[in-house]
Amino acid sequence: MLQTLDVALGLSFIFFLFSVLVSTTSEMILSWTNARGKMLWKAISHLLPNAGHGKDAVPLKDFVAHPLIAGMHRQTTADDGVAKHFPSYLSSTQFSQVLMDLIETKGTEAKAETRWEQVQKGIQALPEGSRGPLQALSRDAERNLLPGQEPMSVFQFLASQWYDGMMNRTTGWYKRLTQVWNFGIGIVLAITCNLNVIAITRALSTNDELRAAFVQKAEASVKAQSELAAKMGAEESKGARAVFDEAVSELSDAGFPVGWNKTTAKIWATHPISTFFESLLGWLMAGAAAALGAQFWFDLMKKIINMRGTGSKPDSGQNMPLGEAGMSAGPIPPAGLIIDGTESRQG
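User: That's the sequence. What structure does it adopt?
Assistant: Structure tokens below.
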């Protein structure tokens, strides 16, 4: 049982380092292509479509061209070029402010006795795709109106909630996109480094010294509470790359076909077909491991270490001597029970 946990801990440590490299590379590419901004553009297109539907939808032109939004990107017209430079973040407060100003501006030309009527007139002036959801929100605002409340305030609050709900969906879209990129980049890096998961598992299972060394590295990493999985910065990536290269070198020096060297070349030349299919499966497994993310493997390392009995000790008085634990070591008496020397009585 302990050997199985040690093998799992060693694999988790290697996958953690590998995932840091993959996630850093993936985030650099997604930032360069402004993937977050494109996702936000897609979300606004679903909330306030100007034309089209689904994948062909584009956001409301007046919303994109609003001064508070236009100042966040280079262009002010709703064409394909805006999505490339669209801001990567927009708070619900900013969204509701821009929306309210846009609606009221459109309703200024209509004759209205109150601002709420002006807002309703402004909604009527919007394109059909954007008009429907906002009309539903305005009716909902009137239904949920409490004494002393203004319908405009309730409407703006509901619009913020509406936007937050779409942002939750957008976060899911971006997470799936990141996993796809991590999987693809993971396979490429696994082939580049010849990171064969099957060979690594075989090495950790058969070589006691190698397994003990990787267990020690994993415990040290968890003990230091590494922040590599959270930061994903350049310095952290360089540190993870150095440790990862060292780990691959140790596996290669132990005689296992990891990395590209004379040993792996000899094995490929001797058994080309079987080595290819085994390596292909190992590379795919490495890509799947990278798709799970570095934080997943770091948390798994902590759980495995706790299962091995080397985790943090409980601090709530458990397993402590009676004199040190005090009354917490014994059962708590029921309410009203008075203990006095040799006798106990119910008060």
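Residues 141 and 155 are 5 Å apart (CA to CA).
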